Amino acid sequence: xxxxxxxxxxxxxxxxxxxxxxxxxxxxxxxxxxxxxxxxxxxxxxxxxxxxxxxxxxxxxxxxxxxxxxxxxxxxxxxxxxxxxxxxxxxxxxxxxxxxxxxxxxxxxxxxxxxxxxxxxxxxxxxxxxxxxxxxxxxxxxxxxxxxxxxxxxxxxxxxxxxxxxxxxxxxxxxxxxxxxxxxxxxxxxxxxxxxxxxxxxxxxxxxxxxxxxxxxxxxxxxxxxxxxxxxxxxxxxxxxxxxxxxxxxxxxxxxxxxxxxxxxxxxxxxxxxxxxxxxxxxxxxxxxxxxxxxxxxxxxxxxxxxxxxxxxxxxxxxxxxxxxxxxxxxxxxxxxxxxxxxxxxxxxxxxxxxxxxxxxxxxxxxxxxxxxxxxxxxxxxxxxxxxxxxxxxxxxxxxxxxxxxxxxxxxxxxxxxxxxxxxxxxxxxxxxxxxxxxxxxxxxxxxxxxxxxxxxxxxxxxxxxxxxxxxxxxxxxxxxxxxxxxxxxxxxxxxxxxxxxxxxxxxxxxxxxx
Length: 515
Ligand SMILES: O=P(O)(O)OC[C@H]1O[C@](O)(CO)[C@@H](O)[C@@H]1O
Known about the structure:
This protein is an alpha/beta fold. It has three domains: 4-25 and 225-346, Glucose-6-phosphate isomerase like protein, domain 1 (Rossmann fold, 3-Layer(aba) Sandwich); 53-210, Rossmann fold (3-Layer(aba) Sandwich), CATH 3.40.50; 356-512, Glucose-6-phosphate isomerase like protein, domain 1 (Rossmann fold), CATH 3.40.50.10490. The chain has helices at residues 12-23, 26-31, 40-46, 56-75, 91-96, 108-115, 134-149, 167-175, 195-203, 209-222, 230-239, 260-272, 328-346, 356-368, 380-390, 408-425, 442-447, 474-491, 504-512, and strands at 4-6, 80-84, 101-103, 122-128, 158-162, 178-181, 247-252, 280-283, 296-302, 322-325, 396-402, 429-433, 452-459, 495-501. The strands form three sheets. A five-stranded mixed β-sheet has the order 1-10-9-7-8. A five-stranded parallel β-sheet has the order 3-2-4-5-6, with helices on both faces. Strand 2 (80-84), helix 5 (91-96) and strand 3 (101-103) form a beta-alpha-beta unit. The protein starts with a strand and ends with a helix. The model has no long low-confidence stretch (mean pLDDT 95). Residues 86-89, 128-130, 133, 136, 188-189, 270, 353, 356, 439 line the site of 6-O-phosphono-beta-D-fructofuranose.
């Protein structure tokens, strides 16, 4: 069998959850695109969201067209690829194509570094299902201007992936950009095997044929109404002990891309974290120690189960969490099925994201508001004391870093700070870059169970980068996004500790020194 699950504790709660999926014939109905699975209200959206269950035909057409385009671009000396996109439009290629530069930030330093690449040999893929995401549209305009500034015609260099009929398709066609239409019957976070996953990844040289084949190879197994169906077993294992055990701490063993956990975060958190409920996946950085909190299940991800000399699994001990072993392509379809099934078990519509919009509105309001002088950042010792006071014993902390996501020193410090805070507070701690997390775990933070506490670290240290046609630049947008999200979190009764700093490295060092 390609997919192997180990360590699942088959207790009464698990049996009950699995039983309800089997009784509902969930798997066969999912693959026959039964829109009524999540209730009458969700059926309208489900009618245009289940195309991912038969992905092969569309995927092979897009693969062929993209491979042709890659050859054409390489012949023209274009061998460097940047993707502008957020959430479901960026996290799949981020995991699949190591050679792709993914710009899913509005931090001026991150944007500037992408714009300052060698544009004479660069093509930019702009991916947005809606065609209206502010980060992506701003990045596209910045690249159009940068190409013109470098004496390169943007029309040959910008490749747009969007739904048919979006405003972006219209604008791109008028500007002479190449357009790939994505399958409109697939939502952003389920879109890895559509143009959103395929076009940027294959242009940047990734082999997606194998991924698609591995997913297709497990499709029949995942469509069975059987208690052995790994998609149903995984969903039941993660949803059985809600609301108490709501966190899944994810580790990868090095045989799968490190970014796989980030893809699972957006898929599961944005799909299930709403109506005060949900399953919260936390991608642990490499080498991190799991929290050991009673709210968390450890989920170990790998391409294949390790077998002992006797050929038997050495991995059946549920004390070390659940093992999920399969090649990446099979994992992707497995997690999509499990997420749809978790939506059913949790009792939510897995295809909407009702609380994301609130932060977007608050961001716009914050952009229009008069600038305020930020108060001096509290001392690190004060922050740790505040967090000890605020974090709920059965809750979680999310560190939201509005800093340059391309800075390795900052990345290392954040990983260490996350680990120290988890050990000190005794709760699971998530780490996400802003604005990336807004299109991923952000839905869960605002719409899921009200047990999160938030530490925002906002770097206000960078030199501004203009957004062509807008008064506010990227730095102003970044700050407005942080303030907007904080205001919505507070409105919903969550505690947010916000730190604005001109020296994020110094701040994090201070935080680590247990000041
Ligand atoms: O592809 P789009 O429409 O730009 O959206 C990007 C992301 O923003 C969200 O709509 C909301 O966070 C995600 O669901 C989506 O993947």
